[in-house]
Structures are given as structure tokens and as C-alpha cells.
Amino acid sequence: MSPHFPGVILSGGKSSRMGEPKALLPFGPGRLVDHVAARLAPQVTRLHLNSNDPAIALPGIPSFGDRFAEFPGPLAGIHASLRYIAATGDAPTHGAIVPVDAPFFPIDLVARLEAVLDGPDDIALTMSCGRMHPVMGLWPLSVAEPLESWLENPPTLKVRAFLDGLKVRTVDFPAIATILGELDPFFNVNTRDDLEKAREILDAFKSP
Questions:
Q1: pLDDT in tens, 196-206
Q2: I need a surface site. Which of 14, 27, 97, 130 has the fewest CB within 10 A?
């Protein structure tokens, strides 16, 4: 299936639990951001990077920072992403957004999310293991304006709270079988222990 939407990797957070930028952590032959970029690029028409740190960059990939100061969380990255890709003019209705700390998202992620869209204002998000992942999904450009108003005076910075009342559709992705056991496809790398587990999982995928 040919890609229909541009993609953005969210890498604008403070990585406070990790103590250093997650995007730059060694992962496989490169960095975590390189791994995620290689996984997302075939699924999208064009790749972009949301980063507030000049050290976090991808060769040949446009990058942009948040439009709100003080790192107000993933909602700020989503907002900046929607504004940026709308300005490029290469997105019909949606942008595919993934966080840099989820290295095992499915290689058919965007296609499966697109399949549940029923209109230009729908938000298509991922689910696995009984819970929703409110950042990773197809976000409509039409959400940028209400999201901006929300961030100007946020009652909360929780993504789920912002989603209340919006047209949200979800796709439930099954666990992935590995030689180390079942893996949540949206496993997050938040701590050093998570990083070591992710590296073990990556090595397991390469095993015969």
C-alpha cells in the first residue's frame, strides 16, 4: 500500500527519567532516533522530526521545535507537528505521529490506522494489551487550532483529557511473539532498565 501521509517523530521531551536525550541513545547500529526513522520512513510520504535540542537531528530530514515554551509535553509536540506539516502543504488531512521512545511499533502501523478513518477530522490511535496509546496515531490537521487554544491555557496537559469529545477511532494491535516472550508493540523506553530490555528484544529479533 502506497503511503498517503507525512510522518513526524516526536523527540522534543526532556527525557527526565532517562537523564539524557532518548533519541541519542545507542540502539542497534545507530541511535534510537535512527531506528525509529528507519521503521517509519517506508510508511509515510515524507519524514519530519520534532526536536527542541539541536543535537537531535537526522541527515536530510527537516526538524522543528515546539511552539510553546517550558516543554508542556507531547501535546505541544503534536501541535507543532500539525502546524508544521500543514505549512509544508504535503498532507491531505492527517499526519502520522510516533514518539521516539517506542522502537517496535508495527511496520504496517500507518496503513492499519488509515483503514479506520471515516472522515478528515477523525483521530486514529493505537491500542495494545488493553490500553490506548494516545500519542501514536494519525492526527488530523483540523485539530491544530483547538489544540493551540487548549495549550494557551491548559486545564491539564494529559493527552487523554484533550481527546474528550473528539472523534477518536482506535486500532487494537496484538502482542508480538519473540523468543523472549510476548512483546507489547508499543513498548516504551523510559528508563535504563527499559533500554536494556529493548536492546535484548532487538537482538532477539535478529536471532535465527
A1: 999 999 988 86
A2: 130
Task: Name residue 100's amino acid.
Answer: V
Single-letter amino acid, residue 107: I
Report the pLDDT averaged over residues 162-185: 92
3-class state of residue 137 by DSSP: strand
- Distance, CA of 91 to CA of 72 (rounded, Å): 25
Round to whole Å and give the CA distance between 137 and 42.
16
Q: Which three cell numbers stand for residue 191?
A: 528508563
> What does the chain come to in residues?
208
- Cβ partners under 8 Å of residue 66, min gap 6: 12, 50, 52, 72, 76, 77, 79, 80
| pLDDT tens per residue, range 11-33 | 977 666 777 889 999 999 999 99
β 131-140/94-99 pair status: antiparallel
> Residue 7: which of 104, 111, 101 has the closest Cα?
111
User: For the chain, what are the domain ranges?
Assistant: 7-206
- The CATH number of the structural domain formed by 7-206 is 3.90.550.10
